[in-house]
Amino acid sequence: MVKVMGVVNLTPDSFSDGGRFLAPYAARAHARDLIAQGADILDLGAESTRPGAAPVSAGDEIARLVPLIGAIRAESAVAISVDTMKPEVARAAMAAGADIWNDVTALGFSDEAPAVAAELGCGVVLMHMQGEPRTMQADPRYDDVVAEVAAFLNVRAEVAMAAGVAREKIWLDPGIGFGKRLEHNLALLAHMDVLVALGFPVLLGVSRKRFIAALDPAALPADTRLPGSLAAALAGVQAGAAVVRVHDVAETVQALKVWEAINRAR
Ligand code: HH2
After folding, report:
1. Tell me, what CATH number does 207's domain have?
2. Which residues have any ligand 1 atom within 6 Å of their CB?
3. Is 50 a residue whose pLDDT tops 80?
């Protein structure tokens, strides 16, 4: 069964739902809603990766994340992931009850990150990004985006395992929209089987992303991109993605139920 990771943003400037869930009680209510809608994993993020977003200190990230993790843990056994690049934030989050470190820098933000992931024994999402969030969309270039992303993820998985992260704790993610033009995103989605063949579960984040508006100018506001998000998520799972990271959990769960029922009828 494909797993659904629901996004809970604790940032004031996320592109899709910026600020709406910043107040602690609102984030908690949102987390509760996503659990009720069928999320298998909640992905909590306190630092936006939006191009041009302001950096957040580790202390601020921890102050936003830890109370929410505690509150969710007190009432649910749902898997909790934290979207952070910083080892000290991952450490505080796991101590508070989180299970997974979702790192858009694939444990590359600091030298000690792979060893910290090994020590924490948590799940680790290794995502591909070209450049850094502030400038990544300025001029992304690849000779062969699918081969380059696959090679990068393979190396990062090797680095993580060499530091002591267990193989079964690792998930890979092509990083749709992270230093990629429309054609790069489409190539990665069309050839996701190449990433799946690396032998790790693949996590895919396409929800409400800008490439959808590049294909349909009517989808300029991020909250009008649900149909495109579902189409891309289903294309991804058809090619073998194991987890989809989404904002619209109920709608994605329904789409996956239909898709899985059709597959069972084959
Ligand atoms: N996308 C975003 C953030 N984190 N993590 C993984 N593993 N994969 C993704 O595709 C991914 C991610 C961007 O989405 P969102 O959280 O809505 O925006 P922001 O980073 O501005 O909070």
Report:
1. 3.20.20.20
2. 7, 9, 11, 14-16, 45, 48-50, 83, 102, 104, 125, 127, 173, 175-176, 203, 205, 245
3. no
User: Could you list the residue range(s) of the whole structural domain that residue 62 is in?
Assistant: 3-265
CB-count exposure of residue 232 (10 Å: 0-12, 13-18, 19+): buried
In the predicted model, what is the mean pLDDT of residues 178-193? 97
pLDDT tens string 114-130: 999 999 999 999 999 99
Give pLDDT, residue 25: 79
Residue with the smallest CA separation from ligand 1 atom 13 is 49
Distances (CA, A) of 131 to 15, 49, 134, 168, 195: 19, 12, 8, 28, 20
Mapped onto helix, strand or coil, the DSSP state of residue 204 is strand
| Å from CA of 2 to ligand 1 middle | 19
Residue 10 has pLDDT above 60, yes or no: yes
The structural domain count of the chain equals 1
